Amino acid sequence: MSRAKSSTPENGIHARGLPAQPNNSLITGIDCLQQLVGAGGPIGSREVARRMGLTHTRVNRILGTLAYMGLLERDADRRYRPGPRLHALAAQSMMASGLLPAALPTLKELRSDGYTVALGTIWNGQVCYLFHERPGQSIEGAILRHELWPADHSTIGVALLAAQDGPPGPIPPAPGNVPESLLPGQDIETTVEAARKRGYAVLKFEDDIVSIGTTIGHPPVAGVAISSRHIGDNFIPDISKRLQAAADAIEQRLASGG
């Protein structure tokens, strides 16, 4: 995970410098869109306003504009949900990045060893899993089926934060449905610093689950990780080398467009 570091401790992948004249209306509109899409189902404008701490009038105007653009649509109860243009934008963005197609051959190789295998990126302290497959799960069930996850509970998150300069920023609290609890002594500052020293991230959970993760790209564009039960400390360095080779293979395939 010896990667070029970003210049600010943002909890995204790259440094984000505020432009001289930011369009605050655009920023709020996209924040509203992401809040709604992340709700997990249709949601009303008043609930979006409550969650964001904004006036209902302002949010209602923004959501109405997004619906006019086709990014949202209303159901029979006049609640908002993703619209057809958002689906088109999501498909176009996945095609343009090329990350998932470039990674799938390597992810399939890793899964053959019986590991849980994951590919993801980070934004505002949360990991977005493009691929997350447990042993025995189908490929179809592994792609874009995992909710956003707090970065301190993910070796992809820890590895990507370690690739940035400075201390990590705030991490959203873990949701109540987190199935594994971290063993004590693994706060985000400790795990990030350890990842910087060793070149990859390691997290240990209850039920003897160990996860190892590293970054992809220079500078990082994503991370790849594996996890399994009963991984002894003496096996971790060799597994990390295999994982780094996998990350390098994904990076090369991404660079070549294949």
Mass-distribution shape: globular
| Annotated CATH architecture of the largest domain | 2-Layer Sandwich
The main pleated sheet reads as: 6 strands, antiparallel
Helical content (DSSP H or I, runs of 4+): 40-55%
| Element-level helix/strand string | HHHEEHHEEHEHHEEEH
Strand order of the largest sheet: 5-4-3-8-7-6
> What is the domain tally?
2
User: Rounded to an integer, what's the Rg over CA atoms?
Assistant: 19 Å
Number of strands: 8
Low-pLDDT stretches are 2-10
Provide the CATH topology of the largest domain: Beta-Lactamase
**CATH superfamily heading of the largest domain:** GAF domain
| Beta-strand content bin | 15-25%
Supply the CATH class of the largest domain: Alpha Beta
Number of helices: 9
Distance between the termini: 22 Å
* Structural class by SSE content: alpha+beta
Mean pLDDT: 88
Protein name: Transcriptional regulator
Biased composition (Polar residues): 1-10
Pfam families: HTH_IclR
GO molecular function, one term: DNA binding
Q: What would you say this structure looks like, in words?
A:
Helices cover 41% and strands 17% of the residues. By secondary structure, the chain is α+β, with helices and mostly antiparallel strands. It folds into two domains: 24-89, Winged helix-like DNA-binding domain superfamily/Winged helix DNA-binding domain (Arc Repressor Mutant, subunit A); 98-256, GAF domain (Beta-Lactamase, 2-Layer Sandwich).
